[in-house]
Amino acid sequence: MFQNRAEALALALPAAIFAAAVFLVPVFMLLSEGFRTADGWTLSAYAAFFSDPLNQTVFLRTLKLGALVTVVSAVVGYAAAFAIVNLSPGKKGHVVNLVVLPLMISPVARTYAWIVILGRTGIVNQALQAVGLSDAPIRILFSETAVFIGLLQLFLPLMIISLISALENMPKDTIAAARVLGANWLQVFWKVILPLTKEGLVVGGTLVFTGSLTAYITPAILGGSKVLMLETLLYQQVTVSNNFVAASVIAFILIVMSFAANILLKRIATARNKK
């Protein structure tokens, strides 16, 4: 498209300068707070953060819920995406629209809807009492279960969309050929579908895991102060404690976890492809 590299660089330079000025420089300044002290550069802020039992609990809870939401999204997403891909073109379009529809609704509205569903007088508790499984309302809100449900509902469409794209790019006759050769459905998925759709899984897994780590509204509303996660803890450190050093540490940890998840998923996909 461009006759020389200088033309391409000249066109990209304004966007690069803008991104550096409004994003990279502020992020670097924020992250540097966690390493910088009056005596120089140090890791003491990170040592202090991880030595606190509360911070350890919050870190492990965030990692656990992020991983759990990603795994469940992958399992449900593969089933849903496979069913959607095999629909007729007309029906497929309608179902894909239904999958995308939640993404057009504000996460705040979607999260508050779960209060109506999971509250003590909500639909779930009413149903449990109606069928005799519970004599009194059970507490679902402000628990890890509520946060998990909210995050799963929030990011599952991203996984489904990623897997639909990967499955549609897969050769149409591969599954039929594997079945003709005697492979059962588990073998078909493990040895045919999974290796051929690993890129979609990596993209979807990265989006879901990163989104689960960095989402604030859903853990804040459904978890409250009883189920702190790193993002809600970061908000508290800035707005309540005015502790920008701790906030910088948490922000850096979230960024590292996001990049690590992407690298790990790629390595797993590559290792699986080599077998």
UniProtKB/TrEMBL annotation:
Task: Show the Gene3D superfamilies listed in the entry.
Answer: MetI-like
GO biological process per UniProt: transmembrane transport
Q: What kind of membrane protein is this, topologically?
A: Multi-pass membrane protein
Tell where it localizes.
Cell membrane
Q: What is one cellular component GO term in this UniProt entry?
A: plasma membrane
**Predominant location:** membrane
Domain ABC transmembrane type-1, residue spans: 59-265
Record InterPro entries: MetI-like, MetI-like_sf
Q: Give TM regions.
A: 12-31, 65-87, 99-119, 140-164, 201-224, 244-265
Which stretches are annotated as coiled coil? none
Record keyword Transmembrane present: yes
Q: Which PROSITE patterns match?
A: ABC_TM1
Q: Which domain of life is it from?
A: Bacteria
Q: Name the keywords, alphabetized.
A: Cell membrane, Membrane, Transmembrane, Transmembrane helix, Transport
Q: Which family does it belong to?
A: Belongs to the binding-protein-dependent transport system permease family. CysTW subfamily.
What is this protein called in UniProt? Answer: ABC transporter permease
What is the phylogenetic placement of the source species in the record?
Bacteria, Pseudomonadati, Pseudomonadota, Alphaproteobacteria, Hyphomicrobiales
